[in-house]
Design brief:
Length: 717
């Protein structure tokens, strides 16, 4: 029967968390957040469609004195055609999602009994998260009903994040049941006839980690935006308490606002935005800069990353003497966010997101829905949003001049141009990012499954070798990849052709921002792991997730203040600029002709109780880093966490700073550059060090052939 005569019955399944129709307790715990909000709004929006017959949202019934009695109701109406149905599962008390796995078969049996009691069976089952996927697979198999799935967050990505945060592999099993979760996701992806995601980047970089990755089954439908909460100014915004709070900071609070809103996370790149503003007198003349970076009572009470970001912001404001031009309030409520967008729109300002990476960019959609033009990083979601809405400009987040230029483009093009951008955003959100747009596209995706007008051909699933990498290629950046641009592309082409079996890592002395800038300029794709600042920082793809466990590990015995005091005034040593210093690196220029040798410098530091790594490279740079840090030690830390044998890692170096990355059991290549002599001592180190006859990337390709590195991988796949 065609859906033109048949109004479908849709069942959504979202098991964990506290789900109710009104006053969602978002942020109450880790299980009551974006997913719960999404499924309730999706159920309500579907129920409002004339073409939909009925919507049930199945979740767990909770009877617990510690939570509201709303969650004990067996049913709760969302509208005349949509309701929340609460299923008994695992007793009455509230349980976090990690403790629900043993109860899911009970949930599935009870849900099956409920569905069989209905006048007719559902036309579609739509599971949300891995636990619901487990239940959805059982119900789909028993009832022969098509399954649609949305992951929300995925176990393989979560596993990488938790390992980077310092959790042990054993703890992941004990606390998070991570293997069970991943297995449930694999099975769900194998059974689901459609997988709905928010962005194409999510498809490729998160779902692409799974054996049952079937991109032909995946559809991108951006989530809807609450247009009742986010809307253009109504005229009374000036009386909102946030207006007075911002005015405390500003000499001229009536100027247009450049609004930035994000967590105080280094990847959000806020300090670079302040630098761009500080270096542009025209931008300062045109607008005030408003920084909303989380909530704080005392910066010293925050975690290290947030402290560094906020300290950088305050120091940069002071450096450029931006007092009276920049506002950075300490507190705001979640309910204040929509008012901030409207205040910025009322001022004829602009919203800016300068993040280094941005998978989706919900704040950009909220700003657009508020009638505020946007400027955002040319990565991930913002490219789609601006491409759809035509309401702003993309920027290179590491180019201060470009950031300032695009902000000025919005602010100085005239009232008519500003209004055009604002109206484009409002129309674009209505068309692409409203709940109405979301459910219309959603129904287009599921109707062929309901009508059986589209045949889903099962795809034989094979073990995807890239999910179980047994080898990796690491290279320095400057001396290996950037030195000869014409040699770079053949290397990248060969690497891309073999990424199905080889992880790619870059290990560089550059800071993160400098490395990203160089990679972007030369078209080098983001590696799976990026080791920066001589091995003191480790970042993981796809979102440059920092390895905070590594930071805690190398902080052992590290005291840069004493190091600077010991080396102060020594001949031939001069501190490099502040931009080259970092939390775990003290950097000097060195004149080897007059400076003490490395042995003597080490002796001076040891006398003061400082056990450190002292590295000299290119004959002119001297870096002191923690004793537990180096490129080689960072490489081994990564290899241990990914279970990659050192014998299957090819390390390519070009300077003395790369030496310990190449010693030991790794396969190594010294490329034939002019700094080749710094690594000449390695000729006696072992059989796994190859001295290439070619320089730069050509030398790496020579080593790949010498070790038969790619071919061996293909044979064993």
């Amino acid at each position: 029967m065609s859906t033109k005569q048949h109004q479908p019955y849709i069942v959504l399944i979202s098991i964990h968390g506290l789900i109710r129709g009104q006053n969602l307790e978002l942020g109450r715990d880790a299980d009551t957040g974006g997913q719960t909000k999404y499924v309730v709004e999706l159920a309500r929006a579907l129920g409002e469609q004339a073409s939909v017959g009925r919507v049930d949202l199945l979740t767990r019934r909770v009877v617990d004195a510690a939570v509201h009695q709303d969650y004990a109701q067996a049913c709760e109406a969302l509208s005349t055609k949509a309701q929340i149905v609460r299923i008994e599962c695992g007793g009455e008390g509230y349980l976090p999602k990690e403790e629900l796995w043993d109860c899911l078969d009970s949930f599935a049996d009870s849900a099956l009994e409920y569905l069989k009691q209905q006048p007719r069976l559902p036309d579609i089952l739509h599971s949300h998260y891995a636990d619901a996927g487990y239940v959805g697979v059982r119900l789909s198999n028993l009832l022969g009903i098509p399954l649609v799935h949305t992951g929300h967050s995925l176990g393989r990505s979560k596993r990488r994040q938790l390992l980077a945060a310092g959790h042990s592999k054993a703890a992941l099993e004990t606390r998070y049941n991570i293997t069970q979760r991943i297995e449930a996701e694999e099975t769900t992806l194998g059974v689901a006839e459609r997988v709905i995601t928010s962005t194409q980047q999510e498809v490729q970089e998160q779902y692409g980690l799974y054996n049952h990755y079937q991109p032909e089954h995946m559809r991108v439908i951006p989530p809807g935006t609450d247009l009742q909460q986010f809307h253009p100014p109504t005229g009374d915004e000036a009386s909102h308490p946030m207006a007075a709070e911002l005015a405390r900071f500003l000499a001229n609070p009536h100027k247009p606002m450049i609004l930035a809103l994000s967590r105080p996370d280094p990847r959000k790149n806020i300090a670079e935005l302040v630098c761009a503003y500080g270096e542009s007198p025209e931008l300062q003349q045109q607008a005030n800069l408003i920084i909303i970076a989380g909530n704080r009572d005392d910066i010293r009470d925050l975690d290290t990353g947030a402290q560094e970001v906020l300290n950088d912001i305050l120091l940069t404001v002071d450096q450029y003497d931006l007092y009276g031009k920049v506002a950075y309030p300490k507190h705001h409520q979640s309910s204040d966010v929509s008012a901030l967008y409207r205040l910025a729109a009322l001022s004829k300002g602009v919203f800016v997101n300068p993040a280094l990476t941005e998978p989706f960019g919900l704040t950009l959609i909220e700003a657009a829905a508020s009638g505020l033009p946007i400027v955002a990083t040319d990565d991930g979601g913002p490219t789609d949003i601006i491409g759809n809405c035509h309401n702003g400009y993309l920027i290179n987040p590491l180019d201060r001049a470009d950031i300032a230029a695009q902000l000025l483009q919005v602010l100085t093009s005239g009232s008519a141009a500003w209004e055009t951008l604002a109206n484009n955003g409002l129309q674009g959100v209505q068309h692409y990012y409203s709940w109405q747009a979301h459910v219309e596209k959603y129904l287009q995706v599921v109707h062929p499954l309901i009508d059986r007008t589209e045949t889903i051909t099962p795809v034989p699933v094979k073990r995807r070798q890239q999910l179980h990498h047994d080898r990796a290629l690491f290279s320095d950046l400057d001396q290996n990849l950037l030195g000869k641009p014409e040699a770079l592309q053949p290397f990248l082409t060969a690497l891309q052709a073999n990424r199905s079996c080889v992880l790619f890592g870059i290990a560089t002395g550059r800071r993160l921002d400098s490395a990203l800038q160089a990679m972007k300029k030369h078209g080098i794709p983001q590696p799976d792991v990026l080791i920066t600042s001589l091995g003191t920082e480790i970042y993981y793809a796809p979102n440059l997730l920092p390895d905070t466990a590594w930071e805690r590990h190398i902080d052992h015995l590290w005291n840069p203040r004493i190091i600077r005091r010991v080396l102060e005034g020594l001949p031939g040593l001069k501190l490099q600029p502040k931009s080259e210093q970092s939390r775990f690196k003290v950097s000097y220029y060195i004149d080897p002709q007059i400076a003490p040798d490395i042995q003597h410098l080490n002796s001076l530091l040891h006398q003061e109780g400082q056990a450190v790594n002292v590295l000299q490279s290119f004959g002119q740079f001297l870096d002191i880093i923690p004793v537990r840090a180096s490129k080689g030690l960072a490489l081994r830390w990564f290899a241990d966490r990914r279970d990659i044998p050192l014998e299957r890692i090819l390390a390519a170096g070009g300077s003395g700073a790369d030496a310990d990355m190449m010693r030991g059991n790794t396969l190594s290549v010294v490329v034939a550059n002019r700094h080749h002599e710094e690594l000449s001592e390695l000729v006696h180190e072992g059989v796994n060090i190859f001295f290439a006859t070619q320089p730069y990337a050509e030398g790496i390709l020579e080593a790949i052939e010498h070790y038969d590195f790619f071919q061996t991988c293909e044979v064993t796949a």
